Every structure is written in structure tokens, then in C-alpha cells.
């Protein structure tokens, strides 16, 4: 069983999003089980569970783990093909995000489009590597930093961009024989402070910033085009000037700003 795998087929995505089938996937990710074993856990008749399992199996979301003979009956124990699943934007190919439509390094929505392309591309690479039985050369870095101020965050972004751009200029060899292009994605965003999946998590983190900070998080109005960004390999972006935060009420600490 894989720790995580990608769903690219629209029909498979629809099957996985069915609440009952999603519950069955979660149960089978914990360990193999038969329809009879699952029926008691999800509160459905065994025949109905079998119906859902066949749909999941048809789309490669579950697979046969083993068969057991019980008298004249063969019991099939199924297991999930992965512990968790990610739905690729390819499942909504006609409306999938395209980060090339606009570029704004300070837009949260552009960051979201980049993230969607990352899921799509890496998912396709994983699928291809699995079929070819080859390892996929990737690298990821994940960390967290607490900025004392918006000015510190802006300085961090400038230094980060300058450093990554310098590395790109140093190692980029587009004319090298046998060379292969690799995509580099660098992102900075506020940490979610509420439990994942809660409706108020994003709003709460935006509201924690000052008015000036929240303004920069929002997308530009329809009548004002987004500020164009520079390419990562040229020069670091410069954040718009920030207004000083309002003085907090007496006895209350100043709210932490986020972007």
C-alpha cells in the first residue's frame, strides 16, 4: 500500500467523493476487511457494501488482499491501494488552474494555481514512474518560520528569492546534452492555526493580521489588474509599503500579522 497516491480519472474521483465509499476507503486503509466485516462498521447491508466495493475496485481504489474459504463461500478481503488520496486537477481538466494565465508573486490565488499544477505534474510523474517501475527523482523542503514583523517577512522573501535565483543561474544548463529540465517551486504562506478542515481556519488566520496585511492577502479588484511579477530567475519581488498597525486597546497585545 502506498502512503499517498493520485486520482486522475474523473470517474474515479467521483467514486472516491461518495460519502459511503470514502468511509469504506478509510476503513480499508486501516487494514484488509470483507464486505461482511465492513457492513457492521458502516451500518449497511453486506450486499450494499459489496456493491460499493466493486465500484471502488473497478477504479483501482481498492484491491484484493486475500481470499478465505468458509464452507461453500469464498470471502474476499479487500484493502485500499493507498493510505490517502489526492485528486489531481486532471480530474477537472477543462477548468483546471493555469498559473501561466497570470503571474503575481504576492497573490494567494496564483500560489494556489502553482500548487494545483504541482499536484498535477508530480501525480503524472508518479503514475508514469510506477508503470515503468522506476524511481522518481524529486526533492521537497518543508519548514516554518515566525516573523517578528511584516518588514522581516519582506526581507526574508527578498533574500530567499535572491538566493534561489543565484542557484538557478549557477546550475541552469539548457543546452547541455542529455540534460533534463526540473521545475523549482518556492512558496511562503501563513501557518494554519486552527485544526485542518474547519470552516473558520482560513478566515481566522487572515483576520489575525492588521488591516494593511489583510489588504495584501486579498486579490486586486476587477477594475485593477494584478501587479505583474518578475520571473524567479531575475530579481526578487518587492512588497508594497505597509502601513503601521493600529495601536491595540489598552491591556491587549498587538495582533500578529500574517500574509
Automatic annotation (TrEMBL):
Gene3D superfamilies: Winged helix-like DNA-binding domain superfamily/Winged helix DNA-binding domain. Residues 196-259 are annotated as: Disordered. Pfam families: HTH_20. Residues 237-252 have a biased composition (Pro residues). It comes from the Bacteria. This is ArsR/SmtB family transcription factor. It comes from Streptomyces heilongjiangensis. The lineage of its organism: Bacteria, Bacillati, Actinomycetota, Actinomycetes, Kitasatosporales.
Amino acid at each position: 500500500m502506498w502512503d499517498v497516491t493520485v486520482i486522475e480519472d474523473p470517474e474515479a474521483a467521483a467514486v472516491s467523493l461518495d460519502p459511503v465509499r470514502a468511509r469504506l476507503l478509510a476503513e480499508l486503509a486501516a487494514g484488509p476487511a470483507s464486505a461482511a466485516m465492513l457492513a457492521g462498521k458502516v451500518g449497511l447491508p453486506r450486499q450494499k457494501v459489496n456493491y460499493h466495493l466493486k465500484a471502488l475496485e473497478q477504479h483501482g481504489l481498492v484491491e484484493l488482499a486475500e481470499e478465505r474459504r468458509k464452507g461453500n463461500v469464498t470471502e474476499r478481503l479487500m484493502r485500499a491501494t493507498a493510505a490517502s488520496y489526492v485528486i489531481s486537477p486532471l480530474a477537472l481538466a477543462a477548468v483546471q488552474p493555469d498559473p501561466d494565465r497570470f503571474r503575481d508573486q504576492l497573490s494567494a490565488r496564483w500560489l494556489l494555481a502553482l500548487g494545483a499544477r504541482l499536484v498535477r505534474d508530480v501525480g503524472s510523474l508518479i503514475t508514469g514512474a510506477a508503470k515503468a517501475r522506476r524511481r522518481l527523482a524529486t526533492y521537497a523542503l518543508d519548514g516554518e518560520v515566525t516573523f517578528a514583523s511584516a518588514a522581516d517577512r519582506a526581507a526574508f522573501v527578498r533574500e530567499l528569492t535572491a538566493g534561489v535565483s543565484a542557484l538557478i543561474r549557477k546550475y541552469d544548463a539548457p543546452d547541455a546534452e542529455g540534460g533534463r529540465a526540473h521545475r523549482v517551486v518556492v512558496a511562503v504562506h501563513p501557518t494554519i492555526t486552527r485544526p485542518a478542515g474547519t470552516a473558520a481556519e482560513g478566515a481566522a488566520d487572515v483576520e489575525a493580521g492588521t488591516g494593511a496585511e489583510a489588504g495584501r492577502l486579498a486579490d486586486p479588484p476587477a477594475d485593477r489588474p494584478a501587479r505583474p511579477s518578475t520571473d524567479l530567475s531575475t530579481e526578487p519581488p518587492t512588497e508594497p509599503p505597509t502601513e503601521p498597525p493600529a495601536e491595540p486597546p489598552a491591556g491587549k497585545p498587538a495582533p500578529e500579522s500574517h500574509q
